[in-house]
Write a structure and sequence with these properties.
Elements: E1 4-10, E2 13-18, E3 26-28, H1 48-77, H2 82-91, H3 99-116, H4 123-126, H5 128-133, H6 142-152, H7 156-164, H8 172-179, H9 195-214, E4 217-219, H10 222-234, H11 241-252, H12 256-260, E5 265-268, E6 275-279, E7 291-294, H13 299-312, H14 320-337, H15 350-364, H16 372-379, H17 385-388, E8 394-396
Parallel strand pairs: 4-8
Antiparallel strand pairs: 1-2, 2-3, 5-6, 6-7
Length: 411
């Protein structure tokens, strides 16, 4: 087969194989539905048969990945030393992982282990001193006794989070007893990057931040971009799912998984057409709370497009890691190789959409005495202003001509 020739796979699906290319490239076009992993999906008439064909093919890869992960998790649950499991994780498929990727995989697997509720065999004995505080009967100790009793009624995930905190209102004795509780099995102590790896990872992250903040990406058609995003969301029934995801991310600044996991919500803020209460913030160590965010289109437009996008997903609800795994790769390829929205720069990454959103919000919302990093910290839900430095690489030239009011009030 010479050049590029379409091969019919199924009704509504076409695989284009370019045998002349150094690396064969396959493009599956299936109703604008994400073609996961090695596939790139663009707009095309919707087809159930085509979608089923694509999903069956790619499902094999995902099933293998999930089976591998379940096997590693099972090893941790039966007490295999964490460092041994970590070596298996690195060696199973022969890939060489970056430290950042390895750190993410360890974090995800550790989180899944914690959700199983497996505790140390020493957990009960090491908690006896703390349990005594739950049975103190003196009136002045009643509040603390209740708080300690409530601690033992929470999940392992919640107990670990509380143990890492300051235990507000607890006496010094109770805090010391809390710190002595061994919640996780001892094999989890070695399921982590080494000190040397962590040091190297931090060095590379610092270098990456320096490169990112010293290189500016220019967004030259901001007003047109906002108009285009609004048009896509207003006419959501005519758009494909990938374009809707990108449009929602641009106008809300939320992460891929936050938009696609099926759990997040946007609620109306009375009297504020360009504000929404967002529920579903990630990376908060379980302390996520709803908060008000500025949005770059009217609320009615946002919810219309978001609802249509979720309908295309069949209202599927996914764990965050599975949502990211299902959508991040194809989104990354599409944004890097194409302009999903005509008026945005090419060669973007999904996280760049948050940077574009942050730059536009700073420009179109009045923010009083707040500094730009302070604004970014609040609108993106960061835990500290240092995280916000990663989102300062966009320049709007020319700046947008519109004004969308004042920034929400943050505590």
């Amino acid at each position: 087969m010479g050049g590029t020739e379409p091969v019919r796979l199924a009704d509504g699906a076409a695989c284009i194989v370019d045998c002349a290319a150094t690396h064969a490239r396959r493009t599956v076009r299936v109703g604008g539905v994400v073609g996961w992993s090695d596939y790139e999906v663009f707009q095309a008439p919707y087809s159930e048969a085509g979608r089923a064909h694509t999903m069956a093919h790619v499902g094999q890869k995902r099933a293998w990945s999930e089976t591998r992960e379940e096997g590693l998790l099972a090893q941790l649950c039966v007490g295999v030393e964490g460092s041994t499991v970590l070596n298996d994780l690195v060696q199973q498929n022969g890939k060489t992982y970056s430290l950042a990727s390895l750190s993410t995989m360890v974090s995800n697997l550790r989180s899944k282990f914690i959700k199983t509720g497996h505790k140390s065999i020493d957990c009960y004995n090491s908690s006896l001193a703390l349990r005594k505080f739950a049975h103190l009967e003196a009136e002045e100790d009643a509040t603390e006794a209740k708080a300690v009793a409530e601690f033992f009624g929470t999940t392992l995930e919640e107990q670990l989070e509380f143990q890492r905190g300051e235990a507000p209102g607890w006496s010094t004795g109770a805090r010391d007893a809390l710190a002595a509780v061994r919640l996780l099995p001892s094999n989890m102590n070695t399921f982590k990057l080494t000190h040397e790896q962590n040091t190297e990872l931090k060095r590379k992250q610092a270098e990456g931040l320096e490169r990112k903040t010293s290189t500016v990406c220019v967004v030259a058609t901001v007003d047109l971009l906002l108009d285009e995003a609004k048009a896509v969301l207003d006419s959501a029934n005519k758009a494909d799912m990938l374009t809707l995801i990108v449009a929602v991310m641009v106008v809300t600044g939320r992460r891929t998984a936050e938009i696609t996991n099926g759990h997040s919500t946007f609620t109306e803020v009375p009297g504020q057409d360009h504000h929404a209460q967002f529920t579903g913030q990630l990376k908060t160590r379980g302390n996520a709370k709803p908060y008000t965010i500025p949005i770059l289109v009217p609320f009615e437009t946002l919810v219309k497009g978001f609802a249509a996008m979720q309908l295309m997903q069949r209202n599927e609800k996914l764990p965050n890691d599975k949502a990211k795994g299902k959508y991040q790769s194809i989104l990354s390829k599409a944004l890097y190789n194409h302009r999903v929205l005509e008026n945005m720069p090419s060669r973007l990454k999904p996280h760049d959409l948050r940077s574009i959103y942050a730059a536009i919000v700073v420009s179109v919302f009045a923010h009083g005495q707040l500094t730009i990093p302070g604004v970014v910290e609040r609108i993106l839900g960061h835990g500290n202003v240092n995280q916000s430095l990663h989102y300062s690489s966009m320049r709007l030239d020319p700046p947008p001509t519109r004004s969308l009011g004042e920034l929400p009030v943050y505590d």
